[in-house]
Write a structure and sequence with these properties.
Length: 323
Amino acid sequence: MEENRIENRLENGMGETVKKILDNINQVIVGKEEVSKLLLTAMLAGGHVLIEDVPGVGKTTFANALAKSVDCRFARIQFTPDTMPSDITGSSIYNYEKHQFEYVEGVLMNHIILADEINRTSPKTQASLLEAMEEGHVTVDGKTYELPQPFMVIATQNPVMQRGTYYLPESQLDRFMMRLSVGYPQMGEEVQIVKKMLEGVTVSKVRNVIDAAGLMKLKEEAGRVIIRDSLIEYAAECVDRTREQERVLLGASPRALLAWIRAAKAYAFVEGRGFVTPDDLKILAVPVLSHRLILVQNTAKDAKGAKEIVEEILRKVRVPLGK
């Protein structure tokens, strides 16, 4: 069976590459193995990630560690209130020698983009990311320029209640496959973090374990993971239930369902399996679905409320039986 062939390929080398990438991240981030796994899952599923949490818990370090594990072009955007769309998409500059306009690439013309503190810039600049994230290209002065592949945006944001931050538009949020939260470390983990920093174990020590071509191959293999029709129907029923909740103004879209399925296949691949289980879908439900729900009361507590709604739906929808 195809699922067995995938598992054999994982045993023969691809699984080792996945393990090396995770080890790379976890050597500089202590006690957050599940977040590391979800971040890699999104990369293999071809999705973008929004990491939301208070300052100083390692959001940027996570993104840097993943990017350093892959030998491809990486760029960081430090968003500020005066960041303009042309700063990230590029612009046309007149070449006086050639007497013509030439496109000067912006930072989006890289494989992995760290969009740091994305909610500190204006909605206009936030919106300029939409075309790149969804369509894989940018348009400058009426001309379209294809982005390199693979392409991934890892954005970080501070909680909206922090000073100088903006809400991300709903259309922007929907382009992120997952929203993750790092959270504070346990006291023992925090001690380990300090010791590692004093010993010089930082992101600069992370070494490449795969190149862009190898990453594309991993993504192709993750896409071949088997998922039963009954599990797709189970996921579709959960998504449909989000649209029936009294507290929800807008439920999850068909794009959300597709993202959930793709993420589940990649997660199974990271776990070394050639098939998706119900637990894969359950683990990914909150990261993939909760940020896409627009609640009737639009407040800073929406993230917690949406999480509770998704978890309640998972408890009520019957899980299909079988392997």
